[in-house]
């Protein structure tokens, strides 16, 4: 009977709509975004602070921002980092540069693809190393 099929469709449709509504309001990947901040300590010059975001979509394959710690003035921004390889300890290494002149290296010290809040990174700007800590945005 055609009306029984129509009733079955009407009975199933709210469940489908309800499921899609739940999926639309579920937490998104952006809830897992982190930002890692740290300092490159320099003996004869102002320290350099750096900031690098981490997201589930791109990981650390993003730009690193460098600023003068004392003045807060922007110094430079790296190219988009690219995953290079894991080191002997399994820590992921990312590389980039600043204007094709200064090398930038980031090592994710956590040993995980996604660093946990509190996870450590090491950042090198043209031979000068610093340590940073990741936290939720």
What would you note in describing this structure?
The structure is a single chain. With 137 residues, the protein is an alpha+beta fold. The protein has one helix spanning 2-24; strands at residues 34-40, 48-54, 65-68, 74-77, 82-86, 92-98, 102-108, 120-125, 128-136. It has a 9-stranded antiparallel β-sheet, with no helix packed on it. It starts with a helix and ends with a strand. Mean pLDDT is 84; it is low at 9-31.
Summarize this structure briefly.
The chain is about 15% helix and about 40% strand.
Record the SSE blueprint.
Blueprint lengths: L1 H23 L9 E7 L7 E7 L10 E4 L5 E4 L4 E5 L5 E7 L3 E7 L11 E6 L2 E9 L1
Antiparallel strand pairs: 1-2, 1-9, 2-3, 3-4, 5-6, 6-7, 7-8, 8-9
What is the ordering of alpha helices and beta strands?
HEEEEEEEEE
Cα(first) to Cα(last) distance is 58 Å
Total number of beta strands:
9
Order of strands in the sheet with the most strands?
A: 4-3-2-1-9-8-7-6-5
Q: What general outline do the C-alpha atoms trace?
A: globular
- C-alpha-based Rg, rounded: 23 Å
Beta-strand content bin = 35-45%
Please describe the structure with a list of short key phrases separated by commas or semicolons.
single chain; 137 residues; alpha+beta; 9-stranded antiparallel beta sheet; 9 strands
